[in-house]
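Hi Q.,

Before the meeting this afternoon, I wanted you to have the glycinamide ribonucleotide prediction in hand. No need to reply - just skim if you have a minute. The sequence and ligand are here:
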Amino acid sequence: MTTNIAVLVSGRGSNLQSIIDNIENRYIQDAKISVVISDVGDAYALERARNHGICDVFIDPSDHPGKKEYENEIMKVLEDNDVDLVLLAGYMRLIGKDLIKSYRNRIINIHPALLPSFKGLHAQQQAFDYGVKVSGCTVHFVDEGMDTGPIIIQKCVPVLEDDTVETLANRILEQEHRIFPEAVKLFVEGKLKVEGRIVVHRN
Ligand code: GAR
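Predicted structure with the ligand bound:
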């Protein structure tokens, strides 16, 4: 059975591109991106979707009286597209409780730091400013907290003496583009089991 995926984005969409590429090259099989949803009208990610013939939708949060109504519209798009799995690929908003309830353990986020360190926005800057010697990225299921859900995969990268935030962010991004597709593949193949906080990888 094909897993129908929705990808939520806010910007550049390089992580979206890594998922598209890994479906097209068949690293991830039996999966399809049914829809890409953005909260930003001119996000380049929307153009990437269109370039690959994927349905793209802009939902403007300011068109709605509140978060609940905004997310109700997202949920309608997810239902209309029979979505099984939601990916947050550079989506810069917290997911509300109704959406989490409907898609419990079926929403996956990529975060550019080694959680539980440096949650929230500008994680690479936070790590750089703190002076850590290693950083990295985390793919995790989304729960009600901010970047607190069960961890699926993490990858470390060194922080080098001559790094700037940009060079560090690029080194992390390179690993994001590996572990996000890897996590999606595991999910699609039914190999992830969530036991409390622990995600078990089954063979
Ligand atoms: C990525 O580094 C992603 O990990 C991060 O935003 C960037 C989006 O890049 N996400 C967060 O910070 C979420 N809190 P992209 O649009 O090129 O995928």
